[in-house]
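pasting for the record
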Amino acid sequence: MAKQEKKLLLGAHMSISGGVFNAIEHGVNTGCTSIQIFTKNNNQWRAKPLTDDEVAKFLTAQKESGIAPVVAHTAYLINLGSPNEDVYQKSLAGLIDEIERADKLKITDLVLHPGSPLDQGVEYGMKKIIDSLNHCIDKTPDAKTRVALECTAGQGAHLGFKFEQIATMIDGVEDRNRISVCLDTCHIFAAGYDIRTKDAYEATIATFKKVIGLKYLKVIHLNDSIKGLGSRVDRHTHIGQGEIGKDAFKFIMQDTRLDSIPKLLETPKDGEEYEADKKNLAILRKFWNERG
């Protein structure tokens, strides 16, 4: 397929204030061809169910806009590795609800930070996360939405900062058709995977391919990092303004292996509404247009 026939899947996280359907209009106005949303308030456990009218408005707006795919992100409260029983039970119920919400909106991938066992150790956390994923998938047997495990920075006790940990989680899931992976550039860099030079980038992609498999990679978050390589600190910043630098994003935008994967900003929303996103998207679009 010729380059000009390929659709550039590029966008950012959009607000759902006033209704999930409003995110589509924000995406159009910002110049996105793909977007990420929350399907509910991301700082609350509970949310009113999506009404048939809301769902219909969202699907109609999406179809008319041509924005696709839409990716969802779970609430940050969810922690499938939590040793706190109250938090854990709320997390299970929360993830099941979010899978059902995303599925109603015909969203194929729901991004999830796998979880933190706090002071209980890696082995405890890995088992709990795997058991939790199987439970939530079992409870949503008719859903088509995949849970996209996000590679983390490893801040605190958060798991998923090693590709091997993500691979182990996938291996433990019984229905692997319901699981995928989200690669975040800031997170993997902070976790110690260098992408700043062509050789380093190729080595990291090769490691991901060998350990996890590119077939599972369904979402990419494009974020520069305030903190350095291996810092294990999750602090996003604008493209080219952090420790990663612009070259890594050029490698990603010009990597034909990643053409079918939506590339989404989670950079700070500075200044006027979505103006920062527009500037970051312009840089990334330029890299795409410069492809040989």
